[in-house]
Design goal:
This protein is an alpha+beta fold. It has 17 helices and nine strands. The chain folds into three domains: 167 residues, no CATH class; 70 residues, no CATH class; 153 residues. The strands form two sheets. The protein has a six-stranded antiparallel beta barrel.
């Protein structure tokens, strides 16, 4: 359909008015299913391309050296001006992929005088594995067969959107493959056999607030068909969720949010690991910023998966490593911080006359300086805060008591306050030493000011709170990493995995 459209068609929101049907509560046959979804898919493709055309100011584009004909009259070979495309002026970071929809233009998309109606629509083909190369010097583009291109005037290719998944869905809906026919038939039979939705829940919950990432039509269709069982406490049954093609990323994120609100546990199985990256990208808004509560967990290994670094916190191997380090090192760091704040690493200034009788002066410790103390405190604090924050966010996984959680939060606040006080430029070395009782002849120093007193009081409060935590905090010590993995899985509420990694769930409730 794409190559049969003109630019006018793409910009016409009424092109398929009256031709696209809403998703019914029940399909009469596979052909009925195909007709409804094909219409929605075509309109969605047009709508997405139209939106990209209307927002050319942010589009990625390449400058061309030349454009030439291939064997087919509708296929053209584009030679990219690589130095110009990579220059500061353009800074194109887009690598052409199969089924990229693009515009062939005589003007740059940033040019206010660009005439959209004079551009030609194109579809990138024949890239294959070259899309993973570090750069592209050329690629091929299909254009409408009837299009009369003025090749000498085309200087830019503007990337609009990618319809790879639309093409895959269209192939399934063509029913040319017998397996697709069987799958659709089975899906329709399943939807006919499930229980009816709970009317109480349908009326009580408004999903519109959760559908902000969809356009109006997608949102209306999903809202009208979204399963009420997500919110249902009155019935326990299976139900099929119908949604327009390509809208499931919004729908799945919405379902995940609602399951979390219900404190339910969810297992999302993907056919293979190759689907995982695309799925995580689809629910990126749900996962990023990183999931601080540990609700979402991916069982697959992140190694070998491309473009997943932004999601590394939700992978089991990373989550397990964090918990292992936290359990093993947290109390040790608490003791280190307590010993440091207790000034056990510094001697008196000046040294005691009978230094042999003073443990602090006889052990050849460090001379005290406010700058050194502040730097060392910050170094320990950075690592300790990371572990303490992780303890609080993973409280359920390690059976953290509410009292310990409150103490940790208080300690975090006190350490931040102490750090700020240590960086007060008005602090005097002699007054701090006197207040910390590192100067024996304290009568030689003026009385401490309010800032120095507050500094010492905060230091002592941290010491007392750390001592309390060291006595009360009980962190289970798992025998091996497998036990840590089981703890992470047990306390994650949404688990995502490909079928080949479901063995990690064996023995789990």
């Amino acid at each position: 359909a794409l190559l049969s459209w003109t630019i006018n068609d793409l910009l016409n929101d009424d092109l398929y008015i009256g031709k696209v049907n809403h998703i019914p509560s029940k399909f009469d046959s596979p052909n009925h299913f195909v007709d409804v979804y094909s219409g929605i898919l075509i309109e969605e493709t047009r709508s997405a391309t139209c939106a990209a055309i209307q927002n050319l100011a942010v589009s990625q584009y390449c400058q061309l050296l030349s454009i030439g004909e291939c064997n087919s009259p509708s296929l053209f070979y584009l030679d990219v001006d690589l130095p110009m495309t990579r220059s500061d002026e353009i800074q194109c970071h887009h690598m052409a992929r199969d089924f990229d929809v693009c515009l062939l233009s005589s003007r740059c998309p940033r040019d206010s005088n660009i005439d959209i109606m004079s551009c030609s629509i194109g579809l990138v083909v024949g890239i294959g594995r070259d899309e993973y190369a570090s750069f592209q010097k050329s690629f091929r583009v299909l254009v409408p067969h009837s299009e009369m291109l003025q090749l000498d005037k085309i200087k830019f290719v503007i990337f609009l959107t990618n319809i790879k998944y639309n093409m895959e869905i269209a192939n399934i809906l063509s029913l040319q493959d017998k397996g697709n026919q069987i799958a659709i038939q089975a899906l329709l039979e399943l939807s006919n056999n499930v229980e009816k939705r709970c009317k109480i829940c349908v009326e009580s919950h408004n999903y519109k607030d959760d559908m902000l990432s969809m356009n109006k039509k997608q949102g209306d269709d999903v809202i009208s068909n979204l399963t009420s069982s997500v919110k249902c406490i009155h019935e326990c049954h299976t139900e099929v969720v119908w949604a327009p093609p390509r809208s499931m990323k919004g729908c799945i994120s919405t379902l995940m949010k609602n399951f979390l609100n219900l404190s339910s546990r969810v297992l999302i199985c993907l056919p293979s690991e190759s689907c995982l990256v695309d799925f995580l990208m689809d629910i990126e808004d749900f996962l990023v910023p990183s999931d601080p509560s540990g609700d979402v967990l991916v069982l697959n290994s992140i190694r070998g998966l491309e473009n997943c670094r932004k999601f590394e916190n939700v992978f089991l191997e990373n989550r397990s490593h964090e918990l292992y380090c936290c359990v093993k090192l947290c109390k040790s760091l608490l003791r280190s911080m307590s010993a440091f704040l207790d000034l056990s690493g510094f001697y008196h200034s000046p040294c005691c006359p009978s230094s042999d009788e003073c443990e602090r002066c006889s052990n050849q410790l460090f001379p005290f300086s406010v700058k050194l103390f502040a730097e060392r405190f910050t170094d320990i604090m950075i690592h300790l805060c990371d572990y303490l924050v992780y303890l609080v966010s993973s409280g359920s996984a390690i059976s953290l008591l509410d009292e310990d959680c409150d103490s940790i939060l208080e300690l975090l606040q006190l350490m931040k306050q102490l750090q700020a006080l240590l960086h007060n430029k008005d602090l005097r070395q002699d007054k701090v030493e006197a207040e910390f009782k590192l100067i024996l002849a304290t009568d030689a120093v003026d009385s401490a000011d309010c800032g120095t007193k507050l500094l010492n009081e905060t230091r002592m409060s941290c010491i007392r709170l750390i001592a309390k935590l060291n006595n009360s905090l009980q962190l289970a010590q798992p025998e091996n990493r497998d036990d840590i993995d089981k703890i992470c899985i047990q306390h994650s509420r949404i688990i995502i995995t490909s079928l080949d990694c479901t063995w990690k769930l064996h023995g789990q409730e």
